[in-house]
Design a protein that fits this description.
The protein is about 55% helix and about 20% strand. It is of the alpha+beta class. Strands 6, 7, 8, 9, 10 and 11 form a 6-stranded antiparallel sheet that branches. Strands 2-1-5-4-3 form a 5-stranded antiparallel sheet.
């Protein structure tokens, strides 16, 4: 009866623990699936909203330009009231007609040579002055509503300024597309987050929302959001089902544990006897704290005898595994170094360039650093091979590689054999680093070199050569790509070749 009780306790605890893990995993996966589904929906919603918004703004811009295209703004700027009255009435009528199918534009101004000559809708937007139209940001928060400032120039002297009620656009969008008041759009303006829902606009923290991926419009980040409380409400049935499932499985485990412990207790004496006669296998020592002398104590004694030898076996095995693992790691490091090194020059090869340059370019673009990049090509390399042989050509390539290492020794300098007789040199820095000057000094050093080549079996000849370099040096913008930099440097190299060789061409 004693061993049966022990087995019951062990089986019950293990089974309950297993059930808890299974049910917890199920509930966690269901919640994760729900959260992912919500995130996908928010991404779709933000994409759809941004697309609609961009389309609406493009239609607004074209329509507004058409509405004011035939207005004589010069007459509005004249001090003669008789000359400007009819034009002012015409412009007011055209803008009123335009607002009938784009009601979100609440205010307009026309400026002639930086002087306001016409205003429309200022009575609907209070606390407005001319300075809001010339702020650096396209979006502003005014009267607890989000507005978009748009400026258009029909000609050189005239500027048409408009103020679009963005919060109203969001409310109408959600009224037509989404019936749930818990979903909305968040606009991130610097350190301020503005949330727009059907019920209105508010400025709050972002702790109680789930966000879509970021979308950009002008100088503002746009996210679709949903209240976490609503998501938790939808998860509640899953939690209730998980609790009921746990209770049912708990009852099943209780019954099964009792049955299994009853059967297993009959076999323990047989197992204890058999294990004494069995060869030693992998077991750990078990401490015996039981005051009862039953079948289990004999099992523990035999078990511990086996475990002592097993410990020695495991230690030896671990030592061997550690040694083999270290050897494999060293071999992998060596293989990686070999795979990214050019065998002829000892420089990094094209594979290393393809892996490292895009990463360095992305760092420069993200941090606003300069990318200084150059492609180096040996002039008349084919003639060297034809005249002195390919072994001499190889010697020239190795000599050029040595000179590259000598002239570009800073930790930020990267250089590779790009292919054939072409090499790349680049670095990322906070400043332009006077890149052209360094390249010209390098070019001069190469021109001074003499490479000794075997002319025949008994004589040698000193061969010299020049190089042409196409380079770029600038801070990459968001729209730039690393392929664009390579293409521009290659174009500059082509220019260097066409304009006489032995020169550095660095053009923006």
């Amino acid at each position: 009866m004693k061993i049966r009780t022990k087995l019951f306790d062990v089986l019950f605890v293990i089974s309950v623990f297993t059930v808890l893990i299974a049910v917890s995993s199920f509930v966690t996966l269901e919640i994760f699936h729900k959260m992912n589904s919500e995130k996908r929906y928010l991404n779709t919603l933000s994409s759809y909203f941004t697309s609609n918004l961009k389309y609406a703004l493009s239609v607004f811009e074209k329509s507004l330009m058409n509405a004011v295209s035939d207005v004589d703004f010069y007459s509005l700027a004249m001090d003669d009231e008789n000359m400007s009255t009819s034009t002012r009435a015409k412009l007011k009528k055209q803008i009123s007609s335009f607002k009938s199918y784009f009601p979100y534009a609440e205010m307009f101004q026309v400026r002639y040579v930086e002087k306001t000559i016409f205003s429309y809708g200022t009575d609907k937007v209070s606390n407005v002055d001319d300075t809001i139209f010339y702020r650096s940001k396209a979006f502003i928060l005014l009267n607890n509503s989000l507005y978009l400032v748009r400026n258009y120039k029909p000609n050189e002297d005239v500027e048409v300024l408009s103020l679009i009620n963005f919060s109203r656009f969001v409310r109408d969008f959600f009224t037509n597309i989404v019936s749930d008041d818990n979903r909305g759009i968040m606009f991130s303006l610097g350190n301020m987050n503005i949330f727009s829902f059907k019920k209105g606009t508010e400025t709050t923290t972002n702790d109680s929302f789930i966000f879509s991926d970021e979308r950009m419009l002008y100088d503002v980040k746009i996210f679709a959001v949903v209240s976490i409380d609503m998501v938790y409400k939808s998860i509640r049935p899953i939690l209730i089902f998980g609790a009921l499932l746990l209770a049912a499985l708990f009852l099943i485990v209780l019954i099964l544990s009792r049955q299994l412990s009853k059967k297993l207790s009959l076999s323990f004496e047989i197992v204890s006897r058999e294990i004494r006669e069995h060869s030693r296998t992998s077991f750990k020592e078990i401490k015996n704290y039981d005051k009862y002398k039953d079948e289990l104590k004999g099992f523990i004694t035999s078990y511990n005898e086996i475990g002592q030898e097993h410990d020695n076996y495991v230690k030896e095995t671990d030592r061997i595994v550690e040694e083999k693992t270290a050897q494999i790691y060293e071999q992998n490091e060596l293989l990686m170094e070999i795979s990214t090194t050019d065998a002829l020059t000892g420089l990094h090869n094209r594979r290393h360039f393809d892996e490292s340059f895009p990463k360095d370019f992305n760092i420069a673009r993200r941090e606003g650093f300069y990318i200084n990049f150059a492609i180096v090509d040996i002039d008349n390399f084919k003639e060297i091979n034809d005249k002195y042989g390919h072994l001499c050509g190889d010697a020239c390539l190795r000599a050029l590689a040595v000179m590259i290492r000598k002239c570009f020794q800073r930790s930020s300098d990267e250089f590779e054999r790009f292919g054939g007789e072409e090499f790349t040199i680049y670095n990322v820095s906070k400043e332009s680093d006077d890149f052209a000057k360094h390249l010209n000094l390098f070019r001069d050093e190469v021109a001074k070199m003499k490479v000794r080549c075997e002319k025949d079996n008994s004589s040698f000849v000193d061969v010299s050569f020049t190089i042409s370099i196409g380079a770029v040096s600038f801070v990459p913008q968001y729209t730039d790509t690393f392929e664009k930099i390579i293409d521009k440097a290659d174009t500059n190299l082509y220019i260097a070749k066409r304009t006489g060789k032995n020169r550095v061409i660095l053009l923006a």
